[in-house]
Amino acid sequence: MLVEILNEQGKEMSPKCKELALMAGGSHYPRVGGDTLEQFMRLTVEECIKILQKREVRNSNSARLILKEHFELEKSQ
After folding, report:
1. How far, in Å, CA of 8 to CA of 49, rounded?
2. Which of 37, 12, 34, 14 is nearest to 24 (CA)?
3. pLDDT tens per residue across all 77 residues of the chain
4. pTM attached to this predicted model
5. CA–CA distance from 20 to each of 56, 59, 62, 64 (Å)?
6. What's the number of domains the chain is made of?
7. Domain carrying residue 21
8. Residue 3 to residue 46: CA distance in whole angstroms
9. What is the dihedral of CA 56, 62, 64, 69, to 10 degrees?
């Protein structure tokens, strides 16, 4: 499962990523591959579009920072 693979690599999913994974896979975290991974990707892209439409995006760097903040990815670096 996606969460177990990330944990093996010493990484944790942010709460927002976990929420999208649950939405894609129902009551379980998605397995890597197949329709579930595609659904997870679609939900993630839709979430990015929704967030960027709400914020003033001046350039690609500001978009990157907005999305990293939203998905709580700054902590992992």
Report:
1. 30
2. 37
3. 455 545 555 566 677 777 887 777 755 555 555 677 778 888 889 999 999 999 889 899 999 999 999 888 865 44
4. 0.63
5. 24, 26, 23, 19
6. 1
7. 2-76
8. 21
9. -70
